Amino acid sequence: MSEREKSALYPNATWGECFEFVKIVDSFKLKSVAYIEVAKKLGLSSVTTKSFTGKISTSKQFGLITTSCSTIQLTDTCKRLLYPTGNDIYSIKHACFSQPPLYNKLIAIYDGKALPSEEILSNILMTEHRIAKAVKNNAAKCFLESAGELGLIKGGILCYAESEKNFNTENSIDNVNDILDEDVQEVVQEKNKQIKITMLIILRKAFRLSQEKLQKLLFQLMQQKTIYI
């Protein structure tokens, strides 16, 4: 009997599947939950099925859970995603995506570049990243689907760094009054509407304000109210 080929560590479930998995764990409202109890919630009678062990392994790689003595604990990072208190949820998700060692390597290779097809990527995973032949297709599929679920693929390009930069820009817009110089704020608050509108156009170009936000600002101007971006 031939020995089964060993594979390097890889996520064998998608981000979406893992996030649904941790929601189930969270539904118990306990610090630790036994494997078997979570399996029952999923309609499984065994904790050794590939779908179950795959979700545990991948959730750990994403930094969403820890395990001990056949029990599961949610990490603080996971709790921040389940119960957000700020607008950094996308940044946290993107950071989780880069946690698996394999994904960290793939991001370093393909960020800002065209991604290969699922078939080609699976072969690359086998020949260059020691992923076993028997699981290479699933490994490639999970990477591409997870990246897509998180909005990291645009026009076939992996946009990890760009997505993080865009998030930081949007986050900065919400606090634009803290960013602008005091002199600029004084100009914005002048009663001369034409000056204010000109400044808004500049702000829109500089901070990529959406049409909806610009309309909101213009309404504030017409009402002679203090501007909030």
Report on the structure:
The chain is mainly α. It is built from 13 helices and 5 strands. The strands form 2 sheets. Strands 1-3-2 form a 3-stranded antiparallel beta sheet. A two-stranded antiparallel ribbon has the order 4-5. β4 and β5 form a beta hairpin. α1 crosses α3, α7 packs across α8 and α12 runs antiparallel to α13. The longest helix is centred in the last third of the chain and has 15 residues, at 193-207. The protein is flat. The chain starts with 14 loop residues before the first helix and ends in a 7-residue tail after the last helix.
Overview in brief:
This protein has 229 residues and is mainly α. The protein has 13 helices and 5 strands.
What labels describe this entry?
mainly alpha; 3-stranded antiparallel β-sheet; two-stranded antiparallel ribbon; 13 helices; 6% strand; flat
Write the layout of secondary structure elements.
Elements (H helix, E strand, L loop, with lengths): L14 H12 L6 E2 H7 L8 H12 L3 E4 L2 E4 L1 H7 L6 H9 L3 H10 L7 H12 L6 H14 L3 E2 L2 E2 L1 H14 L2 H4 L2 H7 L4 H15 L3 H12 L7
Antiparallel strand pairs: 1-3, 2-3, 4-5
Helix pairs in contact: 1-3, 7-8, 12-13
Low-confidence stretches: none
Which range does the strand content fall in?
A: 5-15%
Strand order of the largest sheet: 1-3-2
**Which series of helices and strands comes N to C?**
HEHHEEHHHHHEEHHHHH
Q: What's the helix count?
A: 13
